[in-house]
Amino acid sequence: MSRCTIDHSQNDVLQKLKEQHMFLPKDLFKRSEIFLSKPLDQGTLNEVFHLLKKYDLATGEERMERNKNLEKLYS
Predict the structure, then answer these.
(1) For residues 39 and 10, what is the distance between their CA atoms, to the nearest angstrom?
(2) C-alpha 75, offset from chain centre
(3) Looking at residue 4, what is its pLDDT?
(4) First to last CA, the chain
(5) Per-10-residue mean pLDDT for the chain, 75 residues long?
(6) By the 8 A CB rule, do 12 and 49 touch?
(7) Given this model, what pLDDT does residue 1 score?
(8) How big is the CA angle at 53 (ends 16 and 68), to the nearest 5 degrees?
(9) What pLDDT sits at residue 5?
(10) Domain ranges of the chain
(11) What gap in Å lies between CA 3 and CA 46, rounded to an integer?
(12) What are φ and ψ of residue 48, in 5° steps?
């Protein structure tokens, strides 16, 4: 997954989460909402945004990898 140099706000990340909620496992969506409800550093916000970006277009294998990376961030 390529990285961009744009810093994403907490609102940007929450919006991206809402856009992708139908494609995410329900428990991961809920954990994401809880995680994003607290203040986070810019690097973390950017990482979550890019894991959620185009999630709906990712292959099953790619989604599993993204899910694993999100779970790592949340623990």
Answers:
(1) 8
(2) 14
(3) 66
(4) 22
(5) 77 98 97 97 96 97 98 95
(6) yes
(7) 47
(8) 105
(9) 77
(10) 10-74
(11) 9
(12) -65, -45
What does the block give as tokens for 42? 């810019």
CA distance 39 to 3: 22
Written as one letter, the residue type at 40 is L
Give the C-alpha separation, 48 to 10, whole Å.
10
Q: How is residue 52 written in tokens?
A: 């959620």
User: What's residue 3's pLDDT?
Assistant: 59
Phi first, then psi, for residue 71 (nearest 5°) are: -60, -40
Mapping DSSP to helix (H, G, I), strand (E, B) and coil, where does residue 31 land?
helix
CB 70 within 8 A of CB 51: yes
